[in-house]
Amino acid sequence: MSRLSTVYDRCLLILLATMALPASGEVAETLHAVSALAITFLFFLHGARLPREAIIAGLAHWRLHLLVLAVTFVFFPLLGAVLKLVLSSRWIGPELMLGVLFLCALPSTVQSSIAFTA
């Protein structure tokens, strides 16, 4: 092993290389499809290891699931819109406000979604 790989984790090195050398064109489209398949496979594997009783018990809490969906896809985007109207450009610049809107409108990351479903 080289000195660099002993100091830094391989995953970290791959992440840094990904940021330094972004993909474009056909390679980017292929990587997008591969990442979508990997995320699907990740959710499938997480669900496949759940016992049947846990799945049935989770389905029984459909009202809770509807509440979580409503908060994620209705309440948070509305909160972002209200914050945009209230804060406008007095206290927050337009770039930061755009970031707040993205934060409110986009669903959570894969890792927190898996933790949520567990």
Amount of beta strand? under 5%
Bulk shape: flat
The overall pLDDT, averaged over residues, is 80
Q: In sequence order, what are the helices and strands, one letter per element?
A: HHHHHHH
Largest sheet: none
Explain what this protein looks like in three dimensions.
The chain is mostly helical and 118 residues long. The chain has 7 helices and no strands. It is flat. The mean pLDDT is 80.
Secondary-structure map with pairings?
Elements: H1 3-7, H2 10-20, H3 26-48, H4 52-60, H5 62-87, H6 94-105, H7 110-117
Keywords:
single chain, 118 residues, mainly alpha, 80% helix
Summarize the structure.
This protein is an all-alpha fold and 118 residues long. The protein contains 7 helices and no strands.
